[in-house]
Amino acid sequence: MKTLQVDSTLDSIVFSEEGMLYYKSTAILKILQALGGLWKLSFVFYLIPKGVRDWAYDILAKYRYKIFTRREHCRLPTKEESPYFLD
Questions:
Q1: Whether the Cβ atoms of residue 13 and residue 43 lie closer than 8 Å to each other
Q2: Distances (CA, A) of 23 to 4, 12, 35, 55, 83
Q3: How far apart are the C-alpha atoms of 56 and 21, rounded to whole Å?
Q4: Is the dihedral of CA 18, 22, 27, 30 positive or negative?
Q5: How does residue 22 score in pLDDT terms, banded at 50, 70 and 90?
Q6: Which residues contact 28 (CB under 8 A, 6 or more apart)?
Q7: pTM score > 0.85 for this model?
Q8: What is the structure's pLDDT at 67?
Q9: Which H or E element spans position 16?
């Protein structure tokens, strides 16, 4: 079973797969691979040492609102998307 957890006490994303927990850049890569399709090509980033990937993750996380802009409201899922969300 795959789950995505975001915890306000943590400073990164955590991804759980088959009892293993993955953090930061590894969690992102695992999520991308789980999406399938062209996202599976993200495996090439495993060639970059974990320390370098996590450093880049930290920089991106620090400046994410400057890079991607912050929104005041979250978009609600459509009727077609709602089965993919927990109540």
A1: no
A2: 11, 7, 17, 12, 27
A3: 20
A4: negative
A5: very high
A6: 13, 15, 57
A7: no
A8: 82
A9: strand 14-17
